[in-house]
């Protein structure tokens, strides 16, 4: 890990003990969970215990959890299901979705489905009214994320779900409501049943679990586009990653158990960061209205602009000082566009010069102060 790692939204350093125990489980419990012999049954027991454990964390029961290779695959399964056996031909997404949703929607468009994109307000929030007004009789799916991966804005999912249900009520058929909850599960939690969503996606590596394992919550089964050996109720075929599922469930449970003190620490770090940013001449949080302690935002993600110095350049300069930050989602780091900030109406001078700072369980106030000191110095030295 970097001496000053502030890119937890891209990937959390895994819990060392869970990775070690998962590796041991992989060698002890090597049977295919679909096999009928003793080794297979032992693996199946571990798998199902992990499924039940993860289900408990998100407020549901085991039969509603489908293990996947990560959050992107969970999103893809849900999105592509709109191509199977449905007469509706439109999908609603927000303009600030993660690429796993946003880019998949482009594929749906190429295949003849109408995609309606809902813009956020200037503070980064999708309003229930805007989504409800976009619902049509042919709407097959609505996909709105829980916590934005660049700004930390917590979307009012329950209110949006209710508004969609009301708007679609007269049509006689309810759209499938999907939520990318990858950035929510660890820091703020996500209750699938309480929100009323039909589906939600999660990823282990955002909360200290291993890479290559995720989960899809489904209130009711859907018809997938891909088929295979019938695993995971036929929704996600492929040999199970038993040790990955075990480590995911353990990491999720640990996050839930420590959430209250972790949130208090995250708010302390958020205050130090935002207050410090406002002391740097010209620098500002994005949105500029964001204040420390605003409960509409997840405290572990803060976007900031340093006008006059490109965000990518600042990231590289900070990296040379041993400080890891990013300009946004890691999977979109090679792109020059700032799609989410553009959708919010952020001035190009600010979006071009912006970076994302994200904290986690090992972040300290000293890390924040180190970042602020170097960022202020570099900005003063290199800004144009």
In short:
This protein has a seven-stranded mixed β-sheet, sandwiched between helices. A three-stranded antiparallel β-sheet has the order 9-10-12. A two-stranded parallel ribbon has the order 1-11. It has helices at 16-28, 38-57, 71-80, 99-110, 128-134, 157-168, 192-195, 242-257, 259-278, 311-320, 339-343, 348-352, 365-382; strands at residues 4-5, 65-68, 90-94, 114-118, 139-143, 176-180, 199-203, 214-218, 284-286, 301-305, 323-324, 354-358. Helix 2 runs parallel beside helix 8 (242-257), helix 3 runs parallel beside helix 4 and helix 9 (259-278) runs parallel beside helix 13 (365-382).
Keywords, separated by commas or semicolons:
alpha/beta, 384 residues, Aspartate Aminotransferase, domain 2, 2 domains, 13 helices, Aspartate Aminotransferase, domain 1, 3-stranded antiparallel sheet, single chain, 7-stranded mixed sheet, 40% helix
Set out the fold topology:
Blueprint (H helix, E strand, L loop, with lengths): L3 E2 L10 H13 L9 H20 L7 E4 L2 H10 L9 E5 L4 H12 L3 E5 L9 H7 L4 E5 L13 H12 L7 E5 L11 H4 L3 E5 L10 E5 L23 H16 L1 H20 L5 E3 L14 E5 L5 H10 L2 E2 L14 H5 L4 H5 L1 E5 L6 H18 L2
Parallel strand pairs: 1-11, 3-4, 3-5, 5-6, 6-7
Antiparallel strand pairs: 2-8, 7-8, 9-10, 10-12
Describe this structure in words.
The chain has helices at about 15-30, 40-55, 70-80, 100-110, 130-135, 155-170, 190-195, 240-255, 260-280, 310-320, 340-345, 350, 365-380; strands spanning about 5, 65-70, 90-95, 115-120, 140-145, 175-180, 200-205, 215-220, 285, 300-305, 325, 355-360. By secondary structure, the protein is of the alpha/beta class. The chain folds into two domains: about 5-15 and about 260-380, Aspartate Aminotransferase, domain 1, CATH 3.90.1150.10; about 15-255, Aspartate Aminotransferase, domain 2 (3-Layer(aba) Sandwich), CATH 3.40.640.10. The strands form three sheets. A seven-stranded mixed β-sheet has the order 2-8-7-6-5-3-4, with helices on both faces. A three-stranded antiparallel β-sheet has the order 9-10-12. A two-stranded parallel ribbon has the order 1-11. Strand 6, helix 7 (about 190-195) and strand 7 (about 200-205) form a beta-alpha-beta unit. The longest helix has 20 residues, at about 40-55. The protein is globular. The model has no long low-confidence stretch (mean pLDDT about 95).
